[in-house]
C-alpha cells in the first residue's frame, strides 16, 4: 500500500484519503457501507466538516469502534471564539470521539494568527492543550492566504485545491509545503468533476511525494476505483503525460472550479454549476444538464442583476457574471441541436 507522511504531524496515512462531503447525499446505511468498505481496504484518513450537514454523524456511526486506527480531519467556519468552541464540541459529539486529529479553519478569508484580535488561533492552541485536537490545519482556495499560512509556521497542514490543471504557482505551493514540512492535503483532485480519468489524477499527485488527495466518494464504484490503486498505484508515464498535456490545452485559463464560494446568489442562480456548463456538457453525460430542470436552472442567468457579489467572492478572481453569460449562450446552442 502506498502511504504519505503528512508533514510535521508525522502521520503516515494511506495515499487515498476519503473526502466525506458527498456522503451527505446518501442514506445512513449507504454511507456506513462506503465508509466501512474504505476502512476495510486500508483507507485510514477521513476528511469532513461541521458544515457538511450529517457527514460527521455518519462518520461517527460507521467508524467510532475503530477510532484509534483512523485519522479524522474536520473543520470550523467559526468567526469568533464562541463559534469555534461550539463547532468543536459539536464535531466531537457527532464523530463520537474525544479528539480530532487535524482541526482546520475552513476557508477563512485571512490567515488566523496569534494576537490578530479574533482569538481564533489562541482557541486552537487551547483546544490542543486540552487534548481535543492533535494538530492545527487550515483549508483555503486563495493562494495568498495559503502561502501566508505555510510561511507563518503556525500550521501543521494545508488543504488546498490541486489537480493536474494546476498552474506553476500552485505547484510551487506544494514544494513550499515540502520545504516547510507542512502536510499538503489536496481537495478537488478531480477539479470538481471536470477530470474524468482518476488514474491520471492519481499519478500526477503521486509525483510530488508529499500530497494527500481526499477523493470525494459517493458511489461504491468510485470507491472501488480508488481502492484498486492501493494494489496497483498508477505512476506517471509518457501516455499519462501526453493525456494531461491535451487536457491542459482543453481546460485552460479562466474556468470555474465549482467551489461555490460565490454563493448564494440573490436571484438563486446555481453559479457553481452554471458557470462551468460548457465544460460539463462536453465532459459528462448531458441528459441531466439538458433536462427541463437543467434548463430552468440555466434560464435563471437571464435574471442576473449584476450585483457583483459573486465576482467579489470568487477566490479565483473570475468575472463570474460574464462567465455565466458565455456559458448560457453556449448552452443554448446545445438545445438547438
Ligand atoms: S452578479 Fe448576478 S450571478 Fe452574480 S451574485 Fe449577482 S445576481 Fe447572482
Ligand atoms: S465562480 Fe468562482 S467562486 Fe463561484 S463556483 Fe466558480 S470558481 Fe467557485
TrEMBL record:
Keyword Transferase applies: no
Lineage, broadest ranks: Bacteria, Bacillati, Bacillota, Clostridia, Eubacteriales
Keyword Iron-sulfur: yes
CDD domains (alphabetical): AKR_unchar (cd19100)
InterPro entries the UniProt entry points to: 4Fe4S_Fe-S-bd (IPR017896), 4Fe4S_Fe_S_CS (IPR017900), AKR (IPR020471), AKR2_Oxidoreductase (IPR053135), NAD(P)_OxRdtase_dom_sf (IPR036812), NADP_OxRdtase_dom (IPR023210)
UniProt GO MF annotations: iron-sulfur cluster binding; metal ion binding; oxidoreductase activity
Database matches in PANTHER family: D-THREO-ALDOSE 1-DEHYDROGENASE, NADP-DEPENDENT OXIDOREDUCTASE DOMAIN-CONTAINING PROTEIN
Residue stretches making up the 4Fe-4S ferredoxin-type domain: 294-323
Keywords annotated in UniProt: Iron, Iron-sulfur, Metal-binding
Listed transmembrane segments: none
Identification of the protein by name: Aldo/keto reductase
